[in-house]
Amino acid sequence: MVHWRRIQLLLFFWICSSSCSSSSDFVQENFIECFNSTTYSKHSLPVSDVVFSNESASFSSLLKHSIRNLRFLSTSSPKPLFLVTPFHESHVQATIVCSKENDLQVRVLSGGHDYEGLSYLSSSQAPFIVIDLINLRSIDINIETETASVETGATLGELYYRIAKKSPIHGFPAGSCPTVGVGGHISGGGFGTLFRKYGLAADNVIDAKIVDFNGRIMDRNTMGEDLFWAIRGGGGASFGVILSWKLKLVSLPSIVTTFNVQRTLNQGGTHLFLKWQEIAHKLDQDLFLHVTTKVIDQKMTKTTSKTLSLSFTSLFLGSIDTLIPLMDTHFPELGLKRYQCTEMNWIQSVLFFADFSTKSPLEILMQRLPSISSSFIAKSDYVTSPISQSGLEGLWAKLLENENSELIFTPYGGKMSQISELETPFPHRKGSIFGVQYLATWDDSNENERHLRWIREVYSYMEPYVSMAPRGTYLNYRDLDLGRNYGRNTSYEEAKVWGLKYFKGNFERLVKVKTKFDPLNFFWNEQSIPLLYNCEDEARICEVYSDLDSANVQER
User: Fold this and answer.
1) pLDDT the model gives residue 303
2) pLDDT tens-digit series, residues 291-349
3) Residue 450 burial (C-beta neighbours within 10 Å; 0-12, 13-18, 19+)
4) Where is the FAD-binding PCMH-type domain (predicted)?
């Protein structure tokens, strides 16, 4: 009897496996046929150069090429049914149309730096595809109009390089990691060394092109101001596939100055930080001064115990002669000397903050792969009042528990305090004195749980010292511990748990925009903006109109 039951179970699993395999094959065939036949995709390239099934020989190498967090490269990580690498906007249109026709979820990958891997992973049981925009990365710099037209597969490094090739006195206010893709970075806000002077990357977007759930391409004029507002800080992946940005370039002096002064805890690092958090957000907006921490191994010190090194690193939009008096007035405790400062042009400062030599050839910015790849986990916070000395000392103790830990403290103020928190979905502006990123990196996959546990403990410890009601966090430092969508019908109330942390009062408007422009919730992921109504709620029957001009949800 037991033997017969075992046979029945084996037969059941074999039937299920065969059925799933057949279903998968059927979907794959239908998708390819659809992609081939749609008028959108009829270009000279054969479909085999654009669409790669998970059974193709080059699939794994292509997918791994764009994944930056090795934590998500395990064999147990879910794999997409297809990897699509468009060479033309029409390929994106065809992918959306055919995915919708075959009930495939879509993930969109620009640079591959999503902190939770949502640009190439899915926790849903439904089959999904990944659109990798690596081939859509053209950049056109127009110095006369001081604008840049950038396809969203380009990286920040490629953008900076192209600007520098056209002008030594123009730049763009975005992040310092050159391998980050402009698609996700700008749609989530995007800050860097220039943001106290010029605001976020998203604040300097003047137009965009996006493919909606029906495969239509819209620009700012045709999408309207609501959607244009939403994709500049609300995360573009909730609303469509952003194809390109039109950016406003900013003017910069021919000479800028950088410095990096390091102090350990034994050298008064804590007291320097106490002063820094009082003044950094009040400094002239031409002066960006952030702090990073690093655990120094005992081999690097004269003592037998570990300590913490604090690096005070700065970009000043001006000369050393102007910088030194500013520092002497506002931060004399740091004791900045002329020999610690270096004058350079802006593009050299990009190299400096990317940890390259300022004498490196600019072409190094064109490299899409990071020099070092590892597993990592990160979280973020916003601080609205200075942290006490005892609070800092407790934080330092936590850092010393993990030799692979790092904190990055980014000062706000300046232009960021002058822009309304309603201007874009990114709300962390006036009132935030600095932001914090908690980070742990490691190479051994057996260490995953240890580092995840550590960073959660640090995040819990910091609760009394950071913003509250809500406790703010940065969308581009995606964190699924805050909450997630477990299906397409996550309610507004359920999603508020994490939505208010990212967007504060702007979350409600984002939900309304989502409901209007993606009423079927086609662009879903574990932290996508939800619809205003749950259409499967028994207490409510919804009618969804997908026509762009009348898209809404009616309750009856």
Assistant:
1) 58
2) 999 999 755 555 558 999 999 999 999 999 999 999 999 999 999 999 999 999 999 99
3) middle
4) 76-252
Rounded CA separation 166/141 (Å): 7
280 plus 222 within the same structural domain: no
Number of domains in the chain: 4
β-strands 82-84, 128-132 pairing: parallel
Q: Which of 40, 120, 412, 477 is catalytic?
A: 477
> Is the separation of the CB atoms in 249 and 163 below 8 Å?
yes
Q: Which of 134, 125, 107, 103 is nearest to 28 (CA)?
A: 103
Same domain, 149 and 205: yes
Tell me, yes or no, if 477 is annotated catalytic. Answer: yes
Instruction: Tell me the two tokens of residue 418.
Output: 């002058």
| Residues sharing a CB contact under 8 Å with residue 534, sequence separation 6 or more, in sequence order | 489, 490, 491, 540
Torsion 79-498-115-112 (CA) sign:
positive
pLDDT at 376: 94
- Examine the domain organization and report whether 335 and 197 are in the same domain: no
pTM: 0.91
pLDDT at 180: 97
Residues 330 and 409: their CA atoms lie apart, in Å, by 18
Q: Are residues 317 and 447 in the same domain?
A: yes
